[in-house]
Amino acid sequence: MIQNIEIRHLRYFMTVAEELHFRKAAERLYISQPGLSRQIRQMEEDLGVQLFERNNRKVQLTPAGQYLKKEVSVLLKNLEKAFEHTQLMEKGQEGSIKLGYVGSAMQNVIPELLIKFREVHPTILFNLTEMDNARQVQALLHKEIDIGFVRLNQVPENLQLHPVLHDTFSLVLPQNHPLDVNNFHSLTQLKQESFILFEKNFSPVYFERVMSVFEQAGFNPNISHYTVHANTIFKLVENQFGVAIVPTSLKEGYDMRVKFIELADIPARTVLSAVWNSQNRNPVLEKMLGILMECVK
Question: pTM value?
Fold first, then answer.
C-alpha cells in the first residue's frame, strides 16, 4: 500500500536511481545491500509498479522509474526547502534565497535590488553565485538556485523570463590607444584591430547581437581571443592583446588601465533578464519578484 512508503524509501529509491548499482547505493546509504534490495522490492510491491530492471550485468530504470525519479527529486528538494525555512523562522529569520548571475548583473542590477529588498526584509539571507547562462538554467530547473540573471531570450518550459536592463555596448581600449571619445567616429576605425569577445556559448543571443554590430559597420572582425569572464577581457585589453566590445554596465567595478567608448548611436542593445522557475515554492522568491518588478518599472 502507498501509505507504507516513507521518506526513507524515497531516499533509498533516489540513491539507487542515481547509482544504478545496488552495492554502491548501499555504501552511500550506510546500509547492507540485501537490506536495500528488500526495501526497494517492498516499495515496488506497495506501488504495484516495477521501478528497476535488474540482471546480472546492470540495473536500469523502467519508464515508470524514470518518471518517479524526476518527480521525487522535485519533492525532496521542496521538502528540504520547507525544513530549511522552518529552521530559519525558529531563529527569527524570514527565510533564504539563492541567486545566480552573469558578471555584469553584479555591477548595478543586483546590488540595487538587494539594498531595496533588505530595507523591507532585513532578516532574509542571501546566497549569490556567479555562473554562466547555461549553468543558471540547469540550476533553476533542478532548484539549486531560486532566481537567475541571464543574457538569454529563450528558456525551457517552466522557467519565466523578465527583462530588467536594456544595455548599450561599449568599446574597451587600452588606456594609451589613440582613439578616444573625441576622435572616435565609426567602428570601421578599428577594422584592423584584433577583438576579444565573450564566447558564443556564454550566450548565443548576446554573441549574435555583437556580431550584428560588426555587420552594421560593414566588416568581419578579426577575433583573437574568446573568454567567459569580463575580468579576463579587460586584462587582455590592458596588456595590448586587442580591443573588445562589452555591455556598457561592465565598466563599473573594475580598476584597470582601459578606457570605454559607449556605442550609444548603434541601435543594438544587450538585454539582461531575470529568470526563475514557476514551480519554485520558496516563499521568499515571490517577495523578491515583487521588489524586482518595482525596480524595473
Answer: 0.66
**243 shares a domain with 231:** yes
Is 128 a residue whose pLDDT tops 60? yes
| Claim to verify: residue 281 and residue 152 sit in the same structural domain | yes
Alpha-carbon torsion 283, 287, 292, 297, what sign? positive
- The range of the structural domain enclosing residue 150 comes to 93-165+272-295
CA 221 to chain CA centroid, Å, is 29
Q: Are residues 190 and 258 in the same domain?
A: yes
The CATH code of the domain that includes 71 is: 1.10.10.10
Among the candidates 32, 58, 85, a domain finishes at 85
Distance spanning both ends of the chain, measured CA to CA: 52
Q: Report which of 91, 139, 126 is spatially closest to residue 287, judged by C-alpha positions.
A: 126
**Which amino acid belongs to residue 217?**
A
CA gap 54, 68 in Å, rounded: 17
Count of beta carbons in the 10 Å neighbourhood of residue 277: 24
- pLDDT given for residue 83 in this prediction: 82
pLDDT, position 288: 92
Alpha-carbon gap, residue 171 to 233, rounded angstroms: 12
Q: Is the pLDDT of residue 132 over 90?
A: no
